[in-house]
């Protein structure tokens, strides 16, 4: 019986939705693992090669909401399949492109469709479950996102090192092709519900509480990536870890992240407001433990798991918190979400670098505390001035 149940879960639509999220995030972050090969292959500087990540995030931040808005009028399932095959095709072409700037152009194409697939993936995942289990559906889909963000780098680095430069891109192409075929076969056809006009969807931008939630989500991601962007350097310089041990610890971080994501999904389904308040506090505690940690292996191992859980659970907590203010336009709201969290990633990594310049590598922790404080201010304003007023209005 358990084998049948496991097989059913493995072949469910949510599995292929998550697989597609894993694929697109491996495309976004996986190049980090092969940057030295890119520098050597195309004879470019490290900073030029790093633009492959920066440009990808910038395209999402600038154009994400508009791409999501533009394609909401089309069949959801077909757009998801098309996006996945675009990811696969761009990855395959990237494996064999002879020029660096052609590689850069091939990064822009999937970056345009990244927020489209991301938005539709979560709407589709939620549609597969009863309303009361919507957050659990999001949590299961987010496993693909968190695994792509955390494991994409070591996987591509391993494939490139063991086989070839091309193998890392071919892997991405295979993953996204498999996800596209799986969704084509397994995902039920969407019903012909009435679509909101572009004007109606843009109307959510008039909501002040939505912008406060956007601020909180952006600051939480800035806090997360103030520290995570420099995680390898921090583990090496502060905790004295070797390169191999750091790689293992980042995998441990990812395992903690998957567990934290699922736990947060359950908690936010029980009480969204309390979970949203507790998340940045849990993140701050993990940063404090990192700051105070010594060099003993077991405590560090436990801290890395807790940090991974607090870090990755920020994905579902911020996504549910932001989109809860725009339930009438979920695709566009999720497009806004993916745009602003990418902005948060950029802000966090830049400001974290400034703090490091002024206070050393541990300055990145103080940068994280700063953004956590700003996030809590936004969450507090939303609860005090809007959530409580709504509760009083409903009671009257």
How would you explain this protein's 3D organization?
The chain is built from 16 helices and no strands. With 396 residues, it is mainly α. The N and C termini lie far apart (51 Å). 49% of the residues are buried.
Number of helices: 16
Helix content: over 70%
Tell me the number of strands. 0
Alpha-carbon Rg, integer: 20 Å
Residue share in β-strands: under 5%
Distance between the termini: 51 Å
Multimeric organization = single chain
Largest sheet: none
The low-confidence runs, each spanning 5 or more residues with pLDDT under 50, are: 1-9, 391-396
Average pLDDT over all residues: 83
Structural class, by secondary structure, is: mainly alpha
Shape type:
globular
Q: What is the helix/strand order? A: HHHHHHHHHHHHHHHH
Features:
396 residues, mainly alpha, 16 helices, 0% strand, disordered C terminus
List the helices and strands and how they pair.
Elements: H1 2-10, H2 13-30, H3 35-42, H4 46-71, H5 76-96, H6 100-127, H7 134-162, H8 165-186, H9 198-202, H10 208-228, H11 231-237, H12 243-270, H13 272-292, H14 297-323, H15 330-359, H16 363-395
Helix pairs in contact: 2-6, 2-7, 2-8, 3-4, 4-6, 4-15, 5-6, 5-8, 6-7, 6-15, 7-8, 7-12, 7-14, 10-14, 10-15, 10-16, 12-13, 12-14, 13-14, 13-16, 14-15, 15-16
